[in-house]
Amino acid sequence: MLKVNNRKVIHTLSKRLLKENKSRNKVALLAIILTSFMLSALILFGMNAYRFNEVNWIQSAGTAADAYLTNPTELQLSTLDKSSSVERIGQITQVASSEMDDDRIELSYLSKEAFQMKQDALYPIKGEYPKKQNEIMLSVEAVNHLTGSTPKKGLKIELPISDEHGNQVMQEFILTGWFTDPLASNNPLTSIGFVSKAYLESTNHTIENNGYADVQFKRGITGVDEVERLEQQIKTLDSQAFATYFNLSGSSDQMLMLVGVGVVVLLIMFSGYLLIYNIFYLSISHDIRSYGLLKTIGTTAKQLQQIIRGQALSLSVIGIPIGSAIAIALAFGFALYGGLPNFFRYWQVQLVLIILSSFFAFMTVLISVWKPARKVGKISPVEATRYTDIKIQSKKTKLTTHGGKIGKMAWRNIFRHGKRTTVVFMSLFFGLTTFLSVFTVVESLDIENYVSRTMVSDIEMRNSYMIGDDGEFEPVYNLSSKLINEVKAVPGVTAVMPQYESKYKAEFSDEFSSYYNWAKDSISKADLAKRFEGEMISLESEDFECLFSIQTSEINSNIDLPKSNTVYLSQSLEGTYELPSHFDITHPISGKEYKVNFGGYLPISLRSSGINHWAPTLIVPEKFMNTFNGKVQPVIGSVYVSVEKGKDKEVHQQIQQISEKYGDFQIETKEALRDNLQLSKIAISLIGGGFSVLLALIGIVNFINIMFTGIINRKQELSVLESIGMTRKQVNKMVAIEGAYYAMISLGLVWTLGNGIAYGLFTLFNSVSKYAVYQFPVTPMVLVSLVVVIICVTVPLLTYKKMTKQSITERLQENMY
């Protein structure tokens, strides 16, 4: 048997059939564009959200490295470099410091690998790394503060540098590059700068005496466990620290985010599948006689399937790029809108993400047309000529003398085609439930609740930070009683509450297992035992009482704050970890030991100034703070300022003016936090709401398509009903009731089962956020329900009206020959 190459003929047939089905093509193209758009947008937003989270971690550590080793020897570096678990090692050597009053810039030399690992933390970086001895790279904030101008290549900057004798010597540098230092946003000169290798060689500084190595492990390796293993190999000294920054590769939040994106991708693919499948299924049902005739002249089942897939492929080539392009345009639109400026700061439209989303969209189309194409291939020419797409039910017909009731007829019509009905209900249910779930979460984002849990007062003042001799950030305690008295005198200020802080030491033991389980992703048990130091914080007794009076409903009746030797944790940590019922703490200066009891959690958000402590921050009564410190005066770490309603801006401006006389501070306000959160909520509402509306739209479009095609396919049946005496008014009533039933059943499922799913998702979300307050989205749900009812009722009526432009005779004769 000779093989005949009919590819060209099949391709021509596919194109001709595609041109004939213009109305089908429009709906199918819309479905493919919607599916492609949602998949592209979700993958772009999801993967960039993953990157945003990753960059936040990197910024908190200042590098993409997983661990650091202080003062490494050449042998230790060589051993680490040969380890199969190590991806790369960066060397950082501190070569000089520039001090001006209480401000400080730490100058370091970075190896190529170290600089690469810092790039995300200092994004965006402009210019190039210094090469000559007199070249320097500084933060934008430092350049602005030092010169009063914007950074530019070749700008000359003078800095006082401490020589080997401790004397300040002015040195002139030429700026070759600049970066954004996130840690310098509130204190411009608490910053870092980079110099060349030539500058390092002009000093007597070495990495073994004045530096550290950043170590990045290969993907999938747990940093804490690997540090413990390598520590034995490189034989660290007691004076060295080998510890992790964080364990990003094993972060449960990161994995949860990827799983979430994957689940939503599958949901979108399923919704798109339901729509595209239905479109092609109904189109094939309508054109089945044409395919039957093709089979009679010798077209094989495989060739018929190729014709169907060819049409889907042609529509995909047009629809998928359009959907991806709209998603990219929308993303950049949000970036310009600025609702989430920090998020879009690191936005990347990577080609691999577009290819990935296009692949998922293409697979959705192929899977959707597989079953309809298979159906065409299996049907015989004889079956095709008398195909009606309606299964004859074996149920016994009930005879009556008063005719059939229109409502019952409509009800039977809905469930006559089980598969089609199931697809409609599933499509509407999934789309509307997603809409309900997203708006439930968005409506439940209680900004005031978050602000009140995050900030104690209207304005909060905190000490700024500087880089110490060991390269670590340390608080600069500029807050003083004199400053507090000036703030109290500002018109509009109703209360000023200083927060006192003191360091403590504790003996780490297995009793702290709850705390270790929380911290183990960031530090090994051995390192935690070595560095188990923390801070205790306290307010004056009347200030505690003032805060408790605001939170009376949340106060645990067992809490007895004046009780001596009792320590507490902030309520935000409840469920995260707990402390032993009894343990010992030691004063770091006097060495005196105290036995304390754990009293539970206080419903106030107090934070310490310390950022390099590994023991928990303890909240203690004023009396115990004084007893613990004895003659040593505790420092003021924060000041909480309450303001008269409506005077926040005026008071904030005056406090800023006063604070300039005392040094640099971090000043936060509830108003600024509230405004930022409101912008973010709007952006989240637009993004999440947009996705949910589109998913709901897929369900609605699916319904429109099925109802439109269903009534067209029932043209003869409805014409017969008219010919035996059923009026057009009665037919209109019947198809309208059919649509109403679809709406009632779908909305009934959404308002009951869907609402249960939405509440479950809210509970899951709130277990992470802990500040959301459940709020049912009444207005959005009522509006979308009205839209669904209107569409479900009007679409059948409009379709029937269009069909009845022909006479009954013409409709009855249409498919007789």
Automatic annotation (TrEMBL):
Keywords: Cell membrane, Membrane, Transmembrane, Transmembrane helix
Chief location: membrane
GO molecular function: transmembrane transporter activity
One Pfam family from the record: FtsX
ABC3 transporter permease C-terminal domain location: 263-381, 691-807
Localization annotation: Cell membrane
Transmembrane segments: 27-50, 255-280, 312-337, 349-370, 422-442, 682-708, 739-762, 782-800
Origin: domain of life: Bacteria
Gene Ontology cellular component annotations, sorted alphabetically: plasma membrane
Membrane association type: Multi-pass membrane protein
PANTHER family reported in the protein's UniProt record: ABC TRANSPORTER PERMEASE YTRF (PTHR30572:SF4), MEMBRANE COMPONENT OF TRANSPORTER-RELATED (PTHR30572)
Family, as annotated: Belongs to the ABC-4 integral membrane protein family.
Protein name per UniProt: ABC3 transporter permease C-terminal domain-containing protein
